[in-house]
Structures are given as structure tokens and as C-alpha cells.
6-phosphofructokinase
Amino acid sequence: MRQMVVTPDTDWFSDSFGTVSVMFKQPFCATGMNAAVRATVRMGIYTGAKVYFVHEGYQGLVDGGDNIKLATWESVSMMLHLGGTVIGSARCMDFKEKWGRLKAACNLVKLGITNLCVIGGDGSLTGANQFRTEWSELLADLTKGGKISAEEANRSSHLNIVGMVGSIDNDFCGTDMTIGTDSALHRIIEVVDAITTTAQSHQRTFILEVMGRHCGYLALVTALACGADWVFIPEMPPEENWEEHLCKRLIAQRGRGSRLNVIILAEGAQDRNQKPITCDQVKNLVSKKLGFDTRSTILGHVQRGGTPSAFDRILGSRMGVEAVMALLEATPETPACVVSLSGNMAVRLPLMECVQVTKDVTVAMTEGRFEDAVKLRGKSFQNNWDTYKMLAHVTPPEMKVSSIFFFFNINIAIINVGAPCAGMNAAVRAAVRVGIIQGHQMLAVHDGFDGLANGQIEPIIWAQVGGWTGKGGSNLGTKRHLPGKNIEQISLNITKFNIHSLIIIGGFEAYLGGLELVTAREMYEELCIPMVVIPATVSNNVPGSDFSIGADTALNTITMTCDRIKQSAAGTKRRVFIIETMGGYCGYLATMAGLSSGADDAYIYEEHYHSLVSFVTTTNKLWINYTTQFLYNLYSEEGKGTFDCRMNVLGHMQQGGTPSPFDRNFGTKMGSKSVLWLTNKLKECYRHGRIFANMPDSACVLGMKKRSLVFQPLASLKDDTDFEHRIPKTEWWLRLRPILKILAKYDTVEMDTSEVAAMEHVIKKTGLVKRDKM
């Protein structure tokens, strides 16, 4: 990764190309686009470029005039919290015609614009690439027709294109998430949670139709996040006689004590013969065949609006900055690229390769190759589908044991440790149900390690965890206490309750507790069982994982609170707010909240501020502790006569609330993955009629690293842990702090520049399609 120093007004665009940058979107709006607009404008201005808005999408580009306006730093202030797009959006038939593109090219040439940043879907981006491809031809026609001079044509001899995908459908291949998708999921889950309460009261069945066009991502993730009984997605239509299977499923759910049924339907849902499946069709089936009180709801355009989620604000900001960097480095030979999200990295991918794979999905569905369609959507989509099938499409067995465990019933205990956070219950639910499906008996340990020592352990069954996905906090109860002095009693209870493996869900205390149990194996053979730690904490400070369950919900809580505070600050003017977030010594929440709310700075432990260092002697330094009170006093004193200061400590509200869609989905996948791993590990460790696991890889942290869920031995993570400050020594999100500072107009910022990433999975997927066609 190359390093570069970015300073304001370096005039790179002028020195390199003599051009300016323009930014627009077309034709649909998605919540979060304003963050991308703001970041593109400010990054462009920061590097010395002139940045223009093009209002009303391609139509504004064709019409020109007042539709193309110079942007300023202040013109993008106070817009992060706004939905839609402040520069407008419109369909444009004129741009599809050559005469329309000639007018658009003329408008750009007259303003000296040769860099376009386009926010839209695959259609908009394909149009931009066509515009770029025929740019030389358009210039020749304009020169020949006397619309532009030869000198103007020479100054604008090439056009650079960079795209960002803005779509709630998340249907663009090559990126994990598109701008607007997470916000749409927030709107959907809010409605699902509200409907669930009335459905529970009246014992109703609800069918909800969500958007997505020909992509089932919104429907699939919604089904995972709310624990739906059935989901219809276009990529994987139901099998023949699905009507009978659906009715059996709903009856079985009611038979297990459920008072409601939820069915999620993607708007592009179809059967195996490519006939549409509609809400009314499903409603009539359920109500007439089963006699259930049934209602249907089509959510419609409510999914496109509302306040952007924290994720979409950060995603838009990162993509906007990366788009400008891509234009800075572009040459006439550089192909059009699209800025994408790969795990936690903003990367650049060849635009038309991504477009082609996106089209391949539609072709696969049309040809009935539905397994291929799911694979072409990407690894994340396929994992979501596999997890949903496991949890919803399998009838829980009374007893299911593989041959290796034929005379040996397996008990897996689940324990919550540390502070509670949203998403813990989703992980517990998934673990319990997948464990039961695998034929294990699941045990619930109440009140953390104290409960494990005191014998607060009981079986937990399928029906008990119904509805847990959307509940905040910890239904099992949790405490911060470590095993410590209770190790002996814990080992006795592991024997007493015949516990063969342990799932520890929690934050840094869960990590430390896991390490203590592993260390104690030398003295207590009872602890030689497979263990897995699932990171769940608002602080996001567990080594071995880029993200922790609960952090996204807390971040959204902080962001929404900051929005309200900013409204107060804007109304009173000349007021500075100091806001304290949780996280201990980990600056993740503060940094991400700073990005999502547009803060001027985020003070964190990991980044020392040398301006407040006092030299006590020539050899010693006194580091001043940056407490919230200290900063409040500092700004209050310095601001006298200019501004006044207010302090807000957000406190434990960050740990509460219903889980965000991300935390529900993340917790569900982590819980499922942990049990599947333990099942395999138990088979490996079963010797001579008993379980014995003492190898380092038998006790792991399950974490997300870039795009994958990986298991890392607890012992191997010790070297990457700052135990004094309870944080990992390597924290990926520190790379985002320069973006925060650039968008706040700091004088000089050092930042990493993204590598141009190859789209490896495109080659593999395209090969898959070709093989099937042969």
C-alpha cells in the first residue's frame, strides 16, 4: 500500500490535466448518496480541483446551463443526514441518442470538464462508459460542426470515468454493498418489527413484499434478520409443489408454539417456470387452504427514503474520496473503473467486467440455472442463502446423531460474557437451532462465568429462542466477571452437566475468559473441550475480528443522536459540542461516528496529539489525559467571545435498543458458523469414547477478516493484543482517520492510496457460466 501526503490546494488536477471534476447521479436515488456527493466535492476541492454539480442526472448534462453549477466547500455542509440526493435525479431518454450525448459533450468541453464521477446503477454506469468510449468521435463531430474550436477539443482530448454504485437493490456484482442498501434494510426491519407485534397479538400470518427488482438481496437479508418462515427470491425459486410445502411449514411452526408467521417476498419473485409469485397469490393460498388470518403489505418507496444509516454515510464518504483518488491517478489509457467495497477495503474494479457479471445473473435466471445465479451474486449472497436454508428449511429433529456419536450425546453450552449488546440474542438463537439440527443438546448458561460456576445451566430448545433475533440486550444474562478464582468450580460443573464444548459470546472479557480457560487446561483436564469465542461488544475491540456484534447498532445510535445535537447547534449558532462515546481505549466508535456525523475531529487513545505535550524535563514528557471534561474546559476557555461549549456523555444508551439489520444478520451467521465448526472439531477430538481437546486450534476466536469468517486460535492472538488497554495492536479502521480529517479540511494529511484490485471472482464465475453452456 503506497503512502501519500495530501495537502489542500495542491492543484493536482490543473497541473496534470488542466481539467476539473464533475459529479452527478442518475436515474434513481438511494439514501446515502449525499455522503458520496459531499466527499467527492470536498476531496476534489482539497486537492485543488474545481468541482461541478450536474443537477437532474444525465438530463442536466444534456441541457447544460444552470444544471451544471460550481460546487463549494460550504455547499455540501449539513447534508449527511439527508435522504435522497440534493442534486436531483431524473430519467433521460435524450442521452440514449447520439445527438443528446453530443450536447452533453459540448457542455463539458465548454467548461473544460474531462473527469466524470457517476453515481448510479448498472444502466447509468454503462451509459457513462459508452460516453467515454465514443468521446473522441463526439469531439470530432463537434469540431466539424463548429460547436467547439480545435483548441477546445485538444484541451479536452480524453474523458476519465469513475463510477459509484447507488442502489438499494444491491444487485451490482463486484461490490459487497451498494450505497443505500443498508438504509433500505433499516426501513424494512422497522416495519417488520412493528408488524410482528400485531401479528403476535392476533395470531396472524403476514406477507411482506420488499423491493429489489430482479435481485433478492433485500428479501433474503430481511428473512434472516427477522427469522421469517419463508422467503421468495428470484435467484432461487421454490421447488415444484411449493404451495404444499409452504403450508406444511406454517402448520409446523404453529404446532411448535409460534403465534405468528412471517413470509418475505421479493418483488421479482417467480416460480420455476418464471411465472411471477405475488403477495395476493400467497395470501389467498394461506387464508383459503389453512384458514389463517392473513394480511399482506407492500412496503413500496418507503424503502428508498428516510435518514441514511451510519454504514451508508461511511460507505458513501469512503467511495467519494476513493473516486477522486482514482481520477487523480487516471491516464487516457486507464479503463473506466467502479469504486467497490470488498470486506473493509474500498477498491477499484474494471467497470464493464462488473456490468457483464451483473448481466450474467439475469441470463442464468432466464435459462433456469438458479444455482449459478446464486453463485454469481457473490460469496456473501450465497452464505446468506445457505444460512437461511439451514435455519428455516430444515425440520428440527427430535434426535439426530452421526455414526461417530451414536452412543454419545453431545452437549454444547452457550454463555454470554461482559457488557450486553444488541445482536447477542441473534447469535444465541442461531447457535441453538443449528445445534439442534446437528443433533446436539444445547445448554444455556445464565449470568456469564458466574452462572457456569454456580450451576445456572439448563437445556434450551428450539421454541425458546423464537423471536430472539430482534431483541436487544442478553436474554441469557451476562456479567463481566472472569473465570479466575472459580476455575475449579467451573471444571466440576463441566463434568456434572456433561458439557462437551463451549460457545462464549461477548467482548474483551469473553476473549480474556477464553484465554484463562485454555491456560487452566494444564491443571484441569475437564477444560480440554473445544471452545469458540464470538466477539460481541459495542467497543469492537476483540482481537481477531474486524467487526464485533453490537458495534453497528451502537454506531447508529450515536449517529442519530449526533444528528439531533447538530440541529440544536445549527439553530443556536456559534456552539461547539463535545460528545463522549463508549469504547474504552478503542477509538472505533468515536472515529466512525465522526465520519458518519461529519464531526470536525475525533479524539482517540490510538492517535496521540502532540500539541498538548508539556516537557517536564529535557528527557521526560507529561502526557495530558484527554478526558471529556478536559476537552470541554479547554474549548470553553479558548472559545470565550467566539463560541460557547456544551458537553454530552451518551452513556449506556449505546448498549441498548433493537439490533440493526447488520447485527442481526452478522450474529445469525456467527452463531451458525460456530456450531458447525464445533461439530467438526468434536469429531476430530473424539477418542476412545470421550472428548479430549488440548491443541491450540481447539479454542478459537471466530472473527470477520476482510470478507471471510475465520477461526484463529486464542493463543495465537496474544501477540497482537494490548492487554493493558484492552485493544488489538492492529486496527484496520485507523486507515479511515485521514478521510475524517480531509473532509474536515485539515492542513496536511497522510493517507494510504488504494491499490487497483483485480476482480478474481469474475473470471471464476464467467468460467462457470461457460462450462454450463458447453
Observations:
- The longest strand covers residues 113-120.
- The CA atoms of residues 211 and 368 lie 22 Å apart.
